[in-house]
Amino acid sequence: MLAVIAFVLAGCGGSRGFSPPPPFQSPCSAEPQGHLCLNVYEDKGKATEIIAYLSDSSSSLTGKTWRLALGWGESGIAPTSAQHGNPPEQTFCKDSAGQTITTGNGCDDTLAEFRAGLGDFSAFRVPNASLPNPLCLFQQVRENGKWVAGPAKRVCWPS
Fold it and tell me: How confident is the model at residue 8 (pLDDT cuts 50, 70, 90)?
């Protein structure tokens, strides 16, 4: 009976119209001091989501407290909550030959993701009728009780 059920279920998917998922691609390539990426999604001129990424190919944040922040104008800033240590390891990353590998096989890239739509930038809300121009993403590290610029190079939208 189980063999019949398995045969019937196996036929349900069929090969018609099936295509395997595309290979994983990191939304932000990793760099030794961290690489920031900013994706802005709009619909009819209104920002619907802003996603910020920090990808790191080393352990540059080991033992450090850090955060990412959206910034605009002279004093506009919307930081994430403070994070401690390195971002989580990516599920997939590229080895030195450019081949996709999984963690446990020498993958040491890390990736942090923050979304305005989920409230990760508490002082910045989406949807938003218009975005500050430019809107920049930068990293901050806590040193001696103060937030200072982190090693990752800031990125702005539009670029």
Answer: very low
Does residue 17 fall inside a structural domain? no
Work out the end-to-end distance of the chain between its first and last CA atoms, rounded to an integer number of angstroms. 61
Q: 129 φ, ψ to 5°? A: -60, -40
Print the domain residue range for 119: 23-157
- The pTM is what? 0.73
Query: Which DSSP string corresponds to 73-112?
Result: TTTEEEEPPPEESPPPBPSEEE-TTS-EEETTTT---EEE
For residue 54, what is the enclosing H or E element?
strand 46-56
Q: Is residue 65 part of a domain?
A: yes
7 falls within a domain = no
Tell the burial category of 76 from Cβ atoms under 10 Å away from its Cβ (0-12, 13-18, 19+): middle
The residue written with tokens 């910020």 in the block is 52
Strands 135-143 and 146-149: antiparallel
When pLDDT is cut at 50, 70 and 90, the band that residue 154 belongs to is very high
Bridge partner residues of 77 (DSSP): 71
For the chain, the average pLDDT equals 77
| Domain tally, the chain | 1
Q: Find where tokens 């063999």 sit.
A: 3
Task: For residue 5, give Cα distances in angstroms to 12, 15, 110.
Answer: 11, 18, 42
